[in-house]
Design brief:
By secondary structure, this protein is an alpha/beta fold. The protein has a single domain, classed as 3-Layer(aba) Sandwich (Protocatechuate 4,5-dioxygenase, Chain B). 31% of the residues lie in helices and 16% in strands. Strands 6-2-8-1-12-9 form a 6-stranded mixed beta sheet, with helices on both faces. The protein has a two-stranded parallel sheet with strand order 3-7. Strand 4, helix 2 and strand 5 form a beta-alpha-beta unit. Helix 4 crosses helix 9. Its cofactor is Zn(2+). GO terms for molecular function: dioxygenase activity. Keywords: Dioxygenase, Metal-binding, Oxidoreductase, Zinc.
Length: 270
């Protein structure tokens, strides 16, 4: 079985579900090129726990974990099945790497998972489960967390880190989704692209120390850690391909990255 790519996706505001902008069609196009996975694993900053937890829910609920948005948003569902057996494999891998991972039979899909999946795989016919993001991380630890999950990509599982390439909620122009991009956000995005093009995962893990405007782009870095998880699951030997998503609300980059090539056979059919 050939190895699947891993993905980092910027999930933006919950309204991304209703307002696809540039990123929605880009994710839809990406989804059409991906081999059909056996299951999808999503790590999102909207499920953070003290120690790792893995959702073993057979039928994960669509979690509307936000407030004050248009009523239509709360009607959306992503009725994909869960993947309890694959989730148990993730638990075993995390434990083998020294993490005290535990199953969670209640957790569904938070908006960091289901909102981008609405665009990426709208049929909701591939099993999905989440792995929580540990609360105490830095770049190196988030990368190592992805490394622990890396064998799943060899087993037909699509590993997705869902976060935000920039995430300064203090400066978001909620009243202006098409506001001009702030220069500092663009500078940060360009630095990430340069580092990933060079496959320099050592510098990537030190983003919050080395990148220009890092503290302003990520006053709280939890939305950056899924990028490290995705990169760690892929490793530095594969190329990173940018999927441009534009900049929304002036400061939220919607870029995604695919780590790895696409010339692999369908793992289910193989």
């Amino acid at each position: 079985m050939s190895r699947l790519p891993t993905l980092f996706i910027s999930h933006g505001s919950p309204t991304f579900a209703l307002e696809p902008g540039q990123a929605g069609p880009a994710l839809a196009a990406l989804g059409k090129t991906l081999p059909r996975p056996k299951a999808i694993l999503v790590v999102s900053p909207h499920w953070m726990t003290r120690e790792p937890r893995v959702a073993t829910t057979p039928r994960p609920q669509t979690i509307h974990d936000f407030g004050g948005f248009p009523p239509a948003l709360y009607q959306l569902q992503y009725p994909a099945p869960g993947a309890p057996e694959v989730a148990q494999r993730a638990i075993d891998l995390l434990r083998a790497a020294g993490y005290p991972a535990e199953p969670d039979a209640q957790w569904g899909l938070d908006h960091g998972a289901w909102v981008p999946l609405l665009h990426l795989l709208p049929q909701a016919d591939v099993p999905v489960f989440q792995v929580s993001l540990p609360a105490r991380l830095d770049g190196e630890r988030a990368y190592a967390y992805g490394q622990a999950l890396a064998p799943l990509a060899d087993e037909g599982v699509l590993v997705i880190g869902s976060g935000s390439l920039t995430h300064n909620l203090y400066e978001v122009r909620f009243d202006a989704p098409d506001a001009s991009a702030e220069a500092y956000a663009l500078e940060f995005v360009h630095w990430i692209q340069t580092v990933l093009n060079a496959r320099d995962h050592v510098r990537l893990q030190q983003t919050m120390t080395l990148a220009p405007q890092a503290q302003r782009a990520h006053p709280m870095p939890e939305h950056l850690w899924p990028l490290m998880v995705a990169a760690g699951a892929a490793g530095a030997d594969v190329p990173a391909t940018r999927i441009e998503g534009g900049m929304t609300h002036g400061v939220l980059s919607m870029d995604a990255y695919r780590f790895g090539e696409l010339n692999v056979p369908d793992p289910v059919a193989a």
